[in-house]
Amino acid sequence: MKRRLSEEERELFETTFRDARPLKKLGRKPAKKIAPATPKESATLAPTATSHSRGTGGGLDGRTAERLRRGVLEPEARLDLHGLTEDAAHRALATFLRGASARGLRLVIVVTGKGAKPAAPDEPFDLELNSRSRGVLKAVTPRWLKEPELARFVVDVRSAHRRHGGAGALYVYLRKPVR
After folding, report:
1. What is the radius of gyration, based on Cα positions, of the chain?
2. What global pTM score does this model have?
3. 176 with 153: CB under 8 angstroms?
4. How many structural domains comprise the chain?
5. Contact 160, 169 (CB under 8 A)
6. What is the band of 15 on the pLDDT scale with cuts at 50, 70, 90?
7. Is 153 helix (H, G, I), strand (E, B) or coil?
8. Which domain holds residue 133?
9. The pLDDT value given to residue 109
């Protein structure tokens, strides 16, 4: 049970913190240490069915892939595509990846959402709603990331860990910028 502040305590707090300003966010958060994989875990560390590695240099090493699988790495930037049309989402994704690459970011997350649940059998059928709008961004975003315009920035794409959005989000691991 919380105790109530006296009027004197409240005034002291307000006087003390009147000029306080939030600290600027510091760069990257330090990564958490993870225990080495056991031989049994090592056998199961193959990329998931939803991931695809890019050839032509780069790629994820096993340690980075494992850290992504466990959700240990924190994304450095996030793009939420909820509520956007396909065209607007494609433009936003291209702009976001160009900017993230230019800033030297390595891991970003793209939130597509899981898509709406299918209509219940007793709901009236709406051709426009039921034929095309269910999970469109979730389906097309991985294809966009394979297109040459965006593929040049991308090393790997895979479903995010549950704590970062799970099946409704994608980790996009970016190439090191050429300096």
Report:
1. 22
2. 0.58
3. no
4. 1
5. yes
6. confident
7. coil
8. 73-119+128-179
9. 92
Residues 159/62, Cβ–Cβ less than 8 Å: no
User: Which CATH number characterizes residue 102's domain?
Assistant: 3.30.1370.110
Q: What is the mean pLDDT of the chain?
A: 75
Instruction: Give the HSE-up count for residue 72: Cα atoms under 13 Å, Cβ half-sphere.
Output: 13
> Could you identify the residue written with the tokens 């069915």?
49
Compute CA distances 48 → 15, 52, 65, 66, 162, whole Å: 55, 8, 10, 11, 14
How far apart are alpha carbons 179 and 170 in whole angstroms?
Answer: 27
Q: The tokens 């002291």 sit on which residue?
A: 12
CB burial of residue 64 (10 Å; 0-12, 13-18, 19+): middle
Note the pLDDT tens digit of each residue in 53-81.
Answer: 443 345 677 888 888 888 888 889 999 98
- For 24-48, the pLDDT digits (tens) are 665 555 555 555 555 444 443 333 3
What six digits make up the tokens of 82?
């909820």
Structure tokens given for 170: 């994608």
* 44 in any annotated domain: no
Does residue 96 lie within any of the structural domains? yes
